[in-house]
Amino acid sequence: MTTKYSICNKDYQVTLTDLFKFELRSLYGRIILKSQLKLQKNCKKLLNLGCGTTYFSCGTTYFKGWVNADFFVNIIKFWQTSVKNPDWMLDLRFPLNCDDNVWDGVFSEHTLEHLYPDQVLQLLKELYRTIKPGAWLRISVPDLKKYVKYYCGEGVHELFNRWQTGCEAIRTLTQDYGHLSVWDSTLLAKFLKEAGFVNIQEVSFMQGTDKLLLMDQQDRAWESLYMEAQKPINYQY
Hints:
Layout: H1 16-33, E1 46-49, E2 67-70, E3 88-89, E4 103-109, H2 117-130, E5 131-142, H3 144-151, H4 166-175, H5 185-195, E6 198-203, E7 224-230
Parallel strand pairs: 1-2, 1-4, 2-3, 4-5
Antiparallel strand pairs: 5-7, 6-7
Helix pairs in contact: 2-5, 3-4
């Protein structure tokens, strides 16, 4: 049985206090913590970008043996002492504190939609800079096309029936969870190309070129778009 969403859901309304706390945490983290990236030697360098934290309601997807990265958490030790911090804390609106050509692969699931489009483009350029030549980037985001199909009354996954109307589904996609942008395969491919990536293509759940990056979460598959892209093997500065 699918739980129906409230037609007047107030859970994700953002206040000025919320925004102030968010920006304060970002400022403290970037200036005081200056989180340095710690990498193990003689092993694949894989980045899980947007792993989530137990501090936030979205949950966590920590991968063993990966660098799990997300926003600054637990910046004052007496706050949330049981919280597991990400391996690498950062604010994706700013340049990555990372050398060039580091990553053997990057996975990011349901993260880009929390940024404005111009911030996404800047982040993709940073990922392009920090990924090794020939390495792959795998991205999943909520798929606008699936939501529009539901709005238009077309057949989609049964979990879309959690909303009583297509309008409610669209509102949730664009307004809840701190979402600031929406994506389909055409727009995301355009951004990836502008950032410098090649071999850009839409793929399916748990399908892709680099098998190490197939870490898709089953509970998000019903609404997700999956894209992969590669940094050119012959990349030169």
